[in-house]
Specification:
single chain; alpha/beta; TIM Barrel; eight-stranded parallel sheet; two-stranded antiparallel ribbon; 10 strands; 37% helix
């Protein structure tokens, strides 16, 4: 797993704060409150354009699945992937930008059970029409699928050219949905224009309790245009855990079935009405169990979200 800045890993942080190992703060790792085969269904939200339901917690692969042929790490990731599906997961998001993450995902999916709900999402990240076509064909081959559920234009790169191909591929049935992504606020103005004028099914951007800029324009536009929203960087690359280091969850977090800081941050995101799915990334099975637990039970309402914001600002 990648290390947090200043040498603090998420696991070390959890151990220092007692977060993931105490009944008052998190799901116990050895006997998680969400069993390997949950007897309750995960929370889902509809894709606005079609009504298709997706679980609100998905999985990202940036950094975590770019492991090459390291068999030890691949075996670890295989268990992470199996845990994801055993806890109701569906959406797996990747990109050619993430090294060989697509290939690792595809290889591991071939031996993973209970993948019937798999919803593949990847991206085109290149310049030029033919280059985009070649890259998308390679992505399908690497992920081991005949059709990508969601193809996205990564970080707006050459979006006019790539969008034309995506629209053609959707009409031909090669992909089911089309979208566009960014993880940079400097691109928000251009993204707003694209969302207001182009026929997109999905948009992906960064949004979390410490970064709510998307509430000003992007989320309202997505709602107005019936565009599904995927959220990347839900933990702000670990910054949120650093901020709450040594702090306990408020007692009232139990009112929305929250037992860890990871669940606190994820439930805040997916309780936003316009958000369809958050895609945290991890290389640890225990973290996957913790993340997936955010997709079960109750979610905070609008008043509780305000309370969460106020509390977070004071820690």
């Amino acid at each position: 797993m990648k290390k947090f800045r200043q040498g603090l890993t998420r696991r070390r942080f959890i151990q220092q704060t007692g977060g993931l190992f105490t009944a008052t703060l998190a799901w116990p790792l050895a006997s998680c409150s969400v069993p390997s085969k949950p007897d309750t269904k995960p929370i889902t939200k509809a894709i606005p354009k079609t009504g298709e339901q997706l679980p609100v917690i998905g999985m990202g692969t940036s950094r975590t699945f770019d492991v090459g042929n390291n068999q030890k790490v691949r075996a670890q990731l295989a268990q992470v992937l199996q845990t994801f599906f055993d806890h109701g997961g569906a959406v797996i998001d990747s990109s050619p930008m993430y090294g060989n993450a697509e290939q690792v995902v595809g290889d591991l999916l071939a031996t993973t059970k209970n993948t019937q709900r798999l919803f593949t999402a990847t991206k085109v990240w290149t310049w030029g029409r033919q280059e985009g076509i070649d890259q998308m064909l390679l992505s399908m081959q690497r992920m081991g699928v005949d059709r990508i559920d969601l193809m996205q234009i990564h970080n707006l790169r050459d979006w006019q050219v790539q969008l034309e191909t995506l629209q053609a591929w959707k009409s031909e049935g090669k992909i089911r949905y089309i979208g566009i992504t960014t993880s940079h606020q400097r691109q928000h103005d251009e993204l707003e224009v694209i969302l207001e004028t182009e026929p997109l099914d999905f948009v992906q951007f960064s949004y979390n309790i410490a970064n709510r800029k998307a509430e000003q324009r992007l989320l309202p536009i997505a709602a107005e245009r019936n565009i599904a929203v995927l959220v990347n960087r839900p933990f702000q690359r670990g910054d949120l855990f650093r901020k709450v280091q040594g702090k306990s969850l408020p007692d009232w977090a139990g009112e929305f079935d929250c037992q860890s800081w990871a669940q606190f941050f994820l439930k805040y995101i997916v309780s936003q009405p316009q958000v369809t799915c958050a895609i945290p990334a991890t290389r640890k099975e225990s973290h996957m169990v913790d993340n997936m637990a955010a997709g079960f039970g109750r979610l905070p309402d609008a008043a509780m979200r305000k309370r969460m914001e106020s509390y977070f600002e004071t820690v």
